[in-house]
């Protein structure tokens, strides 16, 4: 089919309510609006290749967008649980809290400014993807890509730093143990 700007505007006006209704049946209102907006952003980018009729394609795109939202939310839940775990450890061992805080700050420092901003807007400030994209001054789709990359790089950095830390602890523990054994 393919549509020009005027055709896309008509398509948007005619089908936005139906795609939104589809999304609202699957997720809470804020998420439904985000998914529908992202669906039409994708449709705009692919407007030259849109099939006729466009509604089934839009609904599949909305379904995929909602699935991506759920994966992001699951990932956020893992991060929140990890941060809660860090908080529990802080109460038990202030030294461990310092090490974990240093690890997190060092991992954040490995990100680009835009990636760090994306992560902080969503994880620290609690903004939705759509709102965070507005703050960052980019499209929701561009922001989603940026956030995905930021999360992956952050997780990789934390894993690397943790493994180095544990390797250092193991080395220090074995050195300390060997020194004790040698002195007896």
TrEMBL record:
Keywords: DNA-binding, Sigma factor, Transcription, Transcription regulation
Pfam families xrefs: Sigma70_r2, Sigma70_r4_2
InterPro entries xrefs: RNA_pol_sigma-70-like, RNA_pol_sigma-70_dom, RNA_pol_sigma70_r2, RNA_pol_sigma70_r4_t2, RNA_pol_sigma_r2, RNA_pol_sigma_r3/r4-like, WH-like_DNA-bd_sf
Record-annotated membrane-spanning stretches: none
A Gene Ontology molecular function term of the record: sigma factor activity
UniProt keyword Transcription, yes or no: yes
Top-rank lineage group of the source organism: Bacteria
Domain named RNA polymerase sigma-70 region: residues: 11-74
Key word Cell inner membrane present: no
Limits of the RNA polymerase sigma factor 70 region 4 type domain: 104-153
Single GO BP term: DNA-templated transcription initiation
NCBIfam families xrefs: sigma70-ECF (TIGR02937)
Protein family according to the UniProt entry: Belongs to the sigma-70 factor family. ECF subfamily.
Protein name as catalogued: RNA polymerase sigma-70 factor, ECF subfamily
Organism of origin: Amycolatopsis xylanica
